[in-house]
Amino acid sequence: MNEAGTLTLRNISVWDTGERIDLIVDGVRQDALIEGNARISGDIDASDLVVAPGFADPHVHFRDPGQTEKETMMTGADSAAAGGYTQVLIMPNTIPALDGEPWNDAPFDVENVVDYLQRYGCIYGVKLPVRYDLSVCASLGRKGLKPSNIELWKKYVAGIEDAEKTSPMKKHPITAISDDGSAVPEPILRDVLAMAKETGLPFVEHCEHHDTGAVNDGPVAKMLGVGGIPASTELAIVQRDIDASRETGVHVHFQHVSTAAAFEAIRKAKKEGLPITCETAPHYLALCDEDVLKYGSMSKMNPPLRSKSDRQATLAAIADGTIDMIATDHAPHTAEEKSGDFAKTPNGIIGLECAYGVCRKVLVDAGYTDDKHLIELMAVNPMQLMSRRPTDIAALLNVSSKCANKRTLRLNITEHPENVDLVLINMREKWTVDANSFHSKARNTPFDGWQLTGRPVATIIGSEIAFSRL
User: Which long-range contacts (CB under 8 A, 24 or more apart) does 184-187 make?
Assistant: First the structure.
């Protein structure tokens, strides 16, 4: 029985103005929700809730195609929706790589991995509960030897030949160029920047160039008897690419920045007026290299967790606005992979379902920023990196309000309800992270068991509730 209900959330607070409104969602169906026991109709006292633009993550790995034992587009999307995300950017280290080259042994009738991901919903007959864009490889096969072939992937870029595009191509365009996982080598850097300039894409850079090492270079590396990764590896790429941006005018976005020296270089570049942006991840805000002794391989990632002073510099970079956005770098791995020898276990952790709570704990509760700025970091600014517009709730109120003393937002009567993406957050909810309850296939997180305050309770995509704990 798939009856549709109308859900009215009374006295919900708008994230940036604090205005109390009634939010009405029509057509809520139980079978469309990830959580099967959520309410689909009636009035709810939402005075503890905040409505904001849906979160956007500019850095996720959904492992599909090629490593679907770790994650699939479906499980990754479910995980994103459960964490309050309505938009993500897929990184190009799929197997085969997301470079536009022909996929000759593809299991479906697709041209390449870009085509496969754009038509994923049609191929499997599913509707994913999150919107997603694609990041194309900077180098052929993401091997760093020569640039990827722009003639093979240019047609998929947002804003290029849009009149010729099919619906899937328009829904899931290429909006960035990156070799995430490794920095673009110097011999091909200018070619990659030229492709970014021609297509208008931001160059999204993994700012490290080391070949060895497992943790931050320092006492912890010595205690564990493993190779260390010096902070200088990050600064070298950041400074190199800042110089290249100055020379070419290309927008360079630095991924998962983790060191004090790199933040200072970025800070100076921004003061110079260069088109530079950067992100960090919740784990660099919450943890340092000493925590590896407690969490083991669940805290092994690339870049590694850095020193206490680097962590403090990361928090300071949030406070002073140097950091533009927060990305999870959601990187699923199997339990077997993460249970092996520490030095050989793969890098990466998952983070979509607890990112907001972790960030609120270490940033808002600790006084480094406020709730409004945190939502800008997790929703507004990442959308702008992908050349997308976050939902403007105030504008929607002006269209749909019918009550003089308290405005009402009824989603299905807005001008373009299909574009309305929202997250509802209970900022007072106290909860404990339980990795076993995650919607992701993976469980590799150091935050399992953490006690947090503040949690997304519903995600709305195109004016329809995709996920709900209401």
Answer: 184/138, 184/139, 184/144, 185/139, 185/144, 186/240
pLDDT at residue number 36:
54
* Structural domains of the chain sorted by starting position, each given as residue range(s) with its CATH number in brackets: 4-50+391-430+451-468 (2.30.40), 54-385 (3.20.20.140)
Please choose, from the candidates 429, 430, 431, 434, the residue with its C-alpha nearest in 3D space to the C-alpha of residue 448.
434
Q: In Å, how far are 326, 381, 419 from 376, measured between CA atoms?
A: 9, 6, 19
**Whole-number pLDDT of residue 402:** 62
Mean pLDDT for 114-142 is 98
CA distance 4 to 468: 15
Answer for the pair 251, 203: CB distance below 8 angstroms, yes or no: yes
Query: In angstroms, how far is CA 212 from the centroid of its own chain?
Result: 27
Residue 332 phi, psi dihedral angles, 5° rounding: -75, 145
pTM for the whole structure: 0.96
Cβ-based burial of 421 (10 A; exposed 0-12, middle 13-18, buried ≥19): buried
Four-residue CA torsion sign, 58, 59, 65, 68: negative
Q: Report the alpha-carbon angle 360-301-329, nearest 5.
A: 50
Is 320 one of the annotated active-site residues of the chain? no
**pLDDT grade for 1, boundaries at 50, 70 and 90:** very low
pLDDT, one tens digit per residue, over 223-233 is 999 999 999 99
Q: Give the lowest-confidence range in 82-91, 378-387, 401-410.
A: 401-410
Q: Are 309 and 264 in contact (CB under 8 A)?
A: no
Task: List b or e across 112-149, with b for residues whose CB sees 16 or more CB atoms inside 10 angstroms.
Answer: bbbbbbbbbbebeeeebbbbbbbbbbbbbebebeebbe
* Closest alpha carbon to 201 in 234, 169, 159: 159
Can you give the pLDDT at residue 415?
83
Q: How many residues does the chain have?
A: 470
Q: Which of 99, 329, 392, 421 is catalytic?
A: 329
The crossing angle, in degrees rounded to 10, of helices 232-248 and 186-199 is 50
